[in-house]
Design goal:
Elements (H helix, E strand, L loop, with lengths): L6 H7 L1 E2 L2 H7 L13 E5 L3 E7 L8 E6 L2 E6 L21 E7 L3 E9 L2 E8 L13
């Protein structure tokens, strides 16, 4: 049994707004997630949401940037607080991270919030209107 992933699987793991590809190509890649910083991508009434487990990080530790067709999420290792307890066992991985997603044209990142250790990034589909163009005589 092979653990290798196809290029399509790797692409769909980090793509937002390309969910129609999964339906047409019969892949379940959108359901797979990486081990560190598990995340969900869901559909909402207005578009999509990415929810990522970021227990131990504060809003100042995380940056979210949308540029072109790319969404980057970066987190810096939280500073050790002065006078904090020493760990006997550390199960929460607090380290710097970077996560990238491809975003389809017509989907815009609207907001990012952290609540109860979950980073939620909301993306909205742009409403595309059509314009009727009259055809005249040349």
């Amino acid at each position: 049994m092979s653990n290798s992933k196809s290029l399509l699987d790797l692409f769909l793991e980090s793509a937002v707004g390309f969910d129609y590809l999964d339906k047409y190509l019969g892949s379940d890649a959108m359901k797979k997630a990486s081990a560190f910083l598990p995340y969900n991508i869901t559909t909402t009434k207005k578009g999509y949401a990415i929810e990522m487990a970021v227990a131990g990080y504060k809003s100042g530790d995380i940056s979210v940037e949308a540029k072109g067709g790319s969404l980057s999420i970066k987190g810096k290792k939280p500073e050790k607080e002065e006078g904090s307890d020493e760990f006997l066992y550390r199960g929460l991985g607090l380290r710097s991270f970077q996560k990238y997603f491809s975003v389809v044209t017509g989907v815009e990142v609207k907001r990012a919030t952290i609540k109860d250790g979950i980073l939620r990034i909301e993306l909205e589909k742009e409403v595309i209107s059509s314009t009727k163009i009259p055809v005249g005589e040349g």
